[in-house]
Design brief:
about 35% helix; about 25% strand; 3 domains; GMP synthase [glutamine-hydrolyzing]; 5-stranded parallel sheet; about 525 residues; 9-stranded mixed sheet; binds xanthosine-5'-monophosphate; GMP Synthetase, Chain A, domain 3; alpha/beta; 16 helices; Rossmann fold; GMP_synth_C; 20 strands
Amino acid sequence: ICLVLDYGSQYTQLIARRVRENGVYSMLIPGDVTLERIKSVQPKAIILSGGPNSVHVADAPQLPAGFFDYIKENNIPVLGICYGMQLLVQSLGGEVQTVETDGEYGRMSIRTTQASELYSDETDHAQMVWMSHGDKATRLPDGFQAVATSEKGTVVAIENTAAQLYGLQYHPEVQHSERGIATLRRFLFDISKVPADWKIENVLEEEMAKIRATVGPTDHVICALSGGVDSTVAATLVHQVLGDRLHCVFVDNGLLRYKEAERVMDTFKNHLHLPVTMIDHTEVMLARLKGLKDPEEKRKAIGAEFINVFQTFADNFEKDHGICPKYLGTLYPDVIESCPPPGTGQKHSHMIKSHHNVGGLPKDLKFTLIEPLRELFKDEVRALGRLPALNVPEAFITRHPFPGPGLAVRVLGDVTEGDALDVLRQVDEIYINTIRDFGLYDNIWQAFAVFLPVRSVGVQGDQRTHSSVVALRAVTSGDGMTADWYPFEPKFLQTVSSRICNGVRSVNRVVYDITSKPPGTIEWE
Ligand code: XMP
């Protein structure tokens, strides 16, 4: 096991994923963990993640007491990345200074300065890396060597080979770091000598075993199905273990796409044979959203309403069966980008949006969370769902992600105004069908339409119109954490624009969103 201690970087789970991609089982736990917990994992290698804090702030996360004695006695190599490197430097008596005006953010060139273990003894070799730091190491602890520096002279890679301690100021885990994976592999295989024997099948076996161990022989589990690949794969997996002790609920919150409820219910029942109850909550949800314009208020209201429905379903279940059920979880980008809920262990991330599936969970939630896919990325979930043991239909596996708050984050402002939701449904259906007609669906991570709360002047049939504007968005991405807009051919844009304006009366203008993430997010709200 390679243990990744999480100090709250946006990229922490990417580290865990990169380790797995290289065939090594990785486990991610919060950075303020106790030494006992670390010992219980018996790691063969430890990576300390980056994080938004400076080691100088009052409550900056620290390594547990006795950490260095433990790794020395057990011969465990440690790699600190960004904040993790600064933590190593500061904890061992070196000096870290805050860079007041001259931070290094984005793509940077670095150069190795001497033979090293991290770079397979290459000297004077340049590479581009992704850097994002406000602090830097200005004096190294005893026994450490600087083995690479940036163009500005910042020490960006350090090692103490005798103590098996290594540090990188940049992020080797992100795509933009040219030889980052090679450096991670040096740490895993040449330095730590961990075996590369992990594959996706292991997740299936391990998660099934965990469910067997957690859920007692008479316990029942309830699971909210969203119609997306994540909850579907999770439910299918749990269903394999628990059979009819799993009870799924699918909530029509009034914010779904065109014919979504009937389509997904058909797949659940007739293809996956999952036990699902559908609850129509449209009226209550739209009444609750009436007048709400602020994106976070909308997200919170939807999350809270979802929990209400779910809780009622659970209460009724308890009344009917006399048993208190348990609950299923979610995927990592949701956990990282949301306000950290109790029990997830995510303490140091900065909130970007409250993704409702986790951000809205109340403190007194009475369920135990079972989260079989908690640390997996979308493409890993897809690989899992494709395994013959789960056999989720390919059309379901390749579906684009759809956010929990649904079309509410795609009708900007008050979703209940006029017929915005219906217009958006029609536009979205035309857009997705056109993408399919052009054979592009599987090249795109996610495509959707957005209803804008503005009107524009147009001319249709010689008549002046003053009608709605819709924006189209399509992005490519590996994991939803970063994304690029999709470069459609003009022929496609021409066709889809004309199909929408001809097919949906109240729309007279179509625009295409050409913003990457960052600086935009994928959804508009
Ligand atoms: P953003 O807009 O944050 O979206 O760049 C990243 C990915 O997450 C999806 N998303 C959500 N998924 N609940 C979800 O299950 C949510 O509240 C939520 N908000 C955004 C989004 O569609 C994209 O795939």
